[in-house]
Amino acid sequence: MKKINLFFTIVGLLTLIGCQKQTTTNNEAQKETKPNIIFVYLDDLGYGDFSANGAKGFTTPNIDYLANNGVNFSNGYASSATCTPSRYAALTGAYPWRNNLRILPGTAPLIIDTKQPTVPKMLRTAGYSTAIIGKWHLGLGSADKDWNEHISPGPNEVGFDYSYIMAATQDRVPTVYIEDGDVVNLDKNDPIQIDYKKKFEGEPNAIDNPEMLTMKWHHGHNQAVVNGIPRIGYMKGGKAALWSDVDMADHFLAKVKTYITEKSKEDKPFFLTYTMQQPHVPRTPHPRFVGKSGKGPRGDVILEADWCVGELLKTIREAGIEENTMIIFSSDNGPVLNDGYYDDAVELLGNHNPSGGLRGGKYSLYDAGAHVPFITYWKGKIKGGKSDALVSQLDLFNSLASLVGSEERTEDSKDVLPALLGESKEGRTSIILEATTRTSYRKGDFVLIPAYKGNKINKKVNIELGNNNKVQLFNLKDDPSQQNDIAAQNPELVKELMEEFTQKRGNFNNTQELILK
Fold first, then answer.
1. Which DSSP letter does residue 86 get?
2. Is the dihedral of CA 28, 30, 32, 38 positive or negative?
3. Where in the chain is the domain with CATH 3.30.1120.10?
C-alpha cells in the first residue's frame, strides 16, 4: 500500500511540476509577445547630436549603445518641425495639420479629444499599464482652468494610468510639476495665477527687473522670472510648488526609476513615455555636467540626457527586464541653437553639426526640421545595424498595435513593425511633413516643397524655413543637404508628386499660398 501511495505521490508531483512549467512557459510566451515598451522622447535633439551619428567634440556612450545594438534609422521622422504637433502625432497616430496644430501656450486646453484613439489607450486595452513622465505640452483641462484645483482632462483622460508632467515647456509658465492632474506641493494659501498677456501688479518681470536674471534672454523670453530665469508668460503664487531647473533631469529620472522598479514586479507589461526636456531651452544642466561638453549649456544638457539614458538602461537591467523591454528613442523635432536665450550655443559650436549635415532645423520645412534621431532597441530581439527604411513617429500606433496583437488602427499611421524590429528595410512609401502648419511631401528619395508666402529666413533663430516663391524638389539620397533644387529639370515628376500631395493633403488653410505649376 505504501508503494502504491508513493507511486501516486510521485506521479502527482511530476504532474504538478509539469503544469507549473507549462504555466511558466505560457507566461513567458505571453511576455514575449507583449514586451514592456519605453518611448524615450527628447526635445530639440538634432539628427547629428549624438556621437553614433557624427557628433563632434563630445561623446554620448549610452545613446550610442542603443544605436549600435539596435536599429539606427537614417530616415526616421517626427511628423513636424515643432513640438506640440509632433507629440500629438506620436500619441494619436494622426497628422497634426488636420487640426492646424501649433506650439501651445502653457494655459492651452487639452487638444486631444478624450474620445480619440491614442497609443496608451490602445495598449491599455491590450493589457498594459501606461504612464507618461516628463514634458507634456498638449494642453490641460479647459481654457479657463484653475491651477489650484484638480486639472482635467489631461494625460489620464487620454490613456495614461499615471502621469507626472510639466504642463508645457521649461521656458513657459507654470513652472510646477503636475501629478495625475494635481500640482505637486501646492500650498492653497498661496494660489497660482497665470496670465500670458498681462503682468501681475507687484510681481517682478524680466524687462523691469534685469538685476534678478541669471540668464540673458535673446527674444520673447522676458516676462515672469523664476529661479533667475526669464520665462514666457506671467505667474504669481505657488512658491512652494516651483520646480528647481537644475534638478529637473534628476527629478524626472527618479520618477522613471521608481515606476519601472515597481511595474517590473507585476504580471502585466507596461508602456512608459519618458519625455525629457533636453536640449530645449532654458538649458540648465545639473552642476555635475556644467562645462563637460565644451559646447556650452546645450552640449552639457545633451551629456546629461545621455547619462539619463544610461541610468534608464541600468534600471531595467537591475529589474531583470531588459530582454523583455523594447526601447524607442527619438526627438520631437530638429535642432535649434539660439532659441530665446543667449547661452553660447553658436559661439562654442565648433565643428559640431547638430543637424548631421541636413538643411534647416527646428521650425523649418527643410529636412532637418522633422528628420530626427530614431532608434529601436530590444536586447535579444533586435540585431544592431543601420536602416534607411522610411519611418515616422506617426507609425507607432499601428506598429505597436501589430506588436501586441491589437486590431485597432488609425488612418495616418502605417504598420512598419518589421522595419522597427530590424527584420525588413522597407518602411512607409511616403509621408507629409509639417512645419508651422505648412507641409511638404516626401516620397521615396524625393521631397517636394511647395511655394508659400512668408520669409525664407527666421531671423530670430537664423534658420531657413523653406518658404519660397517657387516649388522645390530635392533628391535626399543624392543630396541630403538639399543644395541642388532639381524641380526645373523634372517637371513631370513635380506634377506627379504635386497631384499626389494635394490629393492626400486636401484643402490648404487660407494662410498658405500653394503654387501648382
1. H
2. negative
3. 433-505
What φ, ψ does residue 24 adopt, rounded to 5°? -60, -45
Q: Pick the closest to residue 273 from 385, 382, 129, 395 (CA basis).
A: 129
Put simply, whether the predicted model's pTM sits higher than 0.70 gets the answer: yes
Rounded Cα gap, residues 84 and 101, in angstroms: 7
Residue 132 in contact with residue 255, Cβ under 8 Å? no
b vs e for 331-344, b when ≥16 Cβ sit within 10 Å of the residue's Cβ? bbbbbbbbbbbebe
Question: Regarding the domain delimited by 35-181+245-428, which CATH topology (the fold level of the hierarchy) does it fall under?
Answer: Alkaline Phosphatase, subunit A (3.40.720)
Cell 508651422 belongs to: 436
* Cell 503682468 belongs to residue: 199
Q: What is the pLDDT of residues 455-466, one digit of tens each?
A: 777 878 888 887
Residue that wins the pLDDT comparison between 467 and 39: 39
13 CB burial (10 A radius; 0-12, 13-18, 19+): exposed
Query: Where in the chain do CATH 3.40.720.10 domains reside?
Result: 35-181+245-428
Alpha-carbon distance of 137 to 297, in angstroms, equals 23
CATH class held by domain 433-505: alpha beta
- CA neighbor of 278 nearest in space, from 286, 270, 266, 268: 286
